[in-house]
Amino acid sequence: MAKGKQKPAEQLDLLTAVEKIVELARDSGLKPEFFRKADTYISYLASRLDLTNEQSLMMALFIDNSGDRETSLHDLAKFVGCSTTRILKYVSDISVLVLKDMVRNRGCGTYRVPWYVIEPITRNEKFEGYNNANISCGEFFGVLSDIFSIRDEGEINSDMAVTRLETLMDENQHLAFVQQVKSYGLRKEDEVLLLLFAHLFVDDNDDNIRYYDIKFLFDDTRHTQNRIKSSLSDGSHPLLELGVIGYGNNDGLADRESFHITDDAKRQLFSEMKNIALRPENRRNMLRCDKIVPKQLYYDKKIESQIDELANLLDDDRYRQIRTRMEEMKYHSGFACLFYGAPGTGKTETALQLARQTGRDIIQVNVPEIKSCWVGESEKNIKKLFDDYRTKVKNSKLAPILLFNEADAVIGIRQEGAQRAVDKMENSIQNIILQEMETLDGIMIATTNLAQNLDKAFERRFLYKIRFDKPTVEARMSIWHEMIPSLTDDETRTLSSKYEFSGGQIENIARRHAIGKILHGESENTLDELLGYCNDERIETKEKKTIGF
């Protein structure tokens, strides 16, 4: 085929169409000549993905430019050789892609195409999105949690969130919960507010909602927040008038800045959900393995060998085999692992990547949530955490990983002869964790920057203990190149030799560099710019000063 000649539509596939669009778009300025040459490919992609031509053009550019990192509108403009203003004309088309969940809005004008969208395209198949019609009530609340989560993170605006929630409700009118919500005859934003109250109660066991819990829901520019806050405060909000929600209580007086779903409303709304207050799964702290972004990590040989062994152990076939053998030998079959070392050396990210590689979800322990200010509640919380984890292990095809991040907050050195209530509570929590680790049926990973603060009683209960040291010069060079691929070998060696940074610190600098590109465009001297960021990152105290009166 002659160079530049278009393939007939019947010979195309999705990846080829994307490739051709990108090839023709590069430095084209998106001028009429580009659209004439790319028409066949754009039209084909639009037809196959059920998009407009403008949306399919943006989709192709995002697919090619995203990779593992976000792509800004400035990046797209630079790629095609036009002004950023020209790309801004496509913002409404990009918004449709976000609404269809084909592109994720990462904030500050940056976007990323998730792998779950790209993967079917590599098979010449259309991304069909998620089918949330006719699902169970438990699944309904799972989707509800996801929608509120991505709204809270700013990946969709309030209009998109409302649209998704309306669609979810319309597709599941068979649920008693949906029918009850609809029976109140609420206007759109009040219905969304009720869905948020229900989500916080069901998924987070939160029955004390305050203004800061709901302020993320609506954009300030629409003044909806002020109307809702005012009507909640003066008692005129429909949810208060209908008796669906009530005020909190402060020493016997109504607290007009906190709210809860009333008992009558709970009976009406959650009639099809048994033991609603004791739901074992806290979805906010559950991270699904398919939501973990793949990330290349670099270790020295010793750590890499240990991580490989652990990954091999967590492979489901090998895991089941080892568990059976351990039980035959009268050993308990749980696996507790400790990752310790300096901050930013990849401990938490390693746990995430192990989960992704082995197909295991992660239950992330939120220590502040466990430590209640009420006497006796903290102990109940930690016991419930392990009870819920056991239930999850029994009900899951693959045992999830229970992740205690910065674990020294709960498994530090116990207080001898504790007298204060706080110290006694800390000791009680630790005793419960020690007992649970003895009978652990599953996988627990704890990370800590302060191994020296770890109580000795915990040390022997960790089967695997892996120390994470700061990366070598060679590893730092690989990390620099991974984070900023445009760097030359000489530049990465200069940065790696001059600064003994951890991977986390290098990532901080790479983010600063990316933000600089968005704000100011490409630097004339990237190395000098990075050296400046490195000096900012390295905090050194030259002189200690005494502060007093």
Order of strands side by side in the largest beta sheet? 7-9-10-11-8-12
Number of strand elements: 12
Number of helices: 27
User: Which class of the largest domain in CATH terms?
Assistant: Alpha Beta
CATH topology of the largest domain: Rossmann fold
Q: If you compute it from the alpha carbons, what radius of gyration comes out, rounded to the nearest whole angstrom?
A: 27 Å
What assembly state would you assign to the polypeptide chains in this entry? single chain
Q: CATH-wise, what's the superfamily of the largest domain?
A: P-loop containing nucleotide triphosphate hydrolases
Mean pLDDT: 82
Helical content stands at: 40-55%
End-to-end C-alpha gap: 84 Å
How many domains make up the coordinates? 4
* Coarse structural class: alpha/beta
Shape: globular
Beta-strand percent range: 5-15%
Biggest sheet descriptor: 6 strands, mixed
- Low-confidence parts lasting 5 or more residues at pLDDT below 50? 277-282, 541-549
CATH architecture of the largest domain: 3-Layer(aba) Sandwich
Account of the protein in words:
It is a single chain. The protein has helices at 14-25, 32-49, 53-66, 73-80, 84-88, 91-99, 115-122, 137-152, 158-170, 176-183, 188-204, 211-214, 224-234, 238-241, 263-269, 301-314, 316-328, 347-358, 367-370, 377-395, 408-411, 421-438, 456-459, 473-483, 489-498, 503-520, 526-537, and strands at residues 71-72, 104-107, 110-112, 209-210, 245-250, 253-261, 286-287, 335-341, 362-364, 401-404, 443-448, 464-468. The chain is of the alpha/beta class. It folds into 4 domains: 9-122, Arc Repressor Mutant, subunit A, CATH 1.10.10.10; 137-279, no CATH class; 289-468, P-loop containing nucleotide triphosphate hydrolases (Rossmann fold, 3-Layer(aba) Sandwich), CATH 3.40.50.300; 473-537. The chain has a 6-stranded mixed beta sheet, covered by helices on one side. A 3-stranded antiparallel beta sheet has the order 1-3-2. β5 (245-250) and β6 (253-261) form a beta hairpin. α1 (14-25) runs antiparallel to α2 and α3 packs across α6. The chain is globular and about 75 Å long. The chain starts with 13 loop residues before the first helix and ends in a 12-residue tail after the last helix. Residues 277-282 and 541-549 have low confidence and may be disordered.
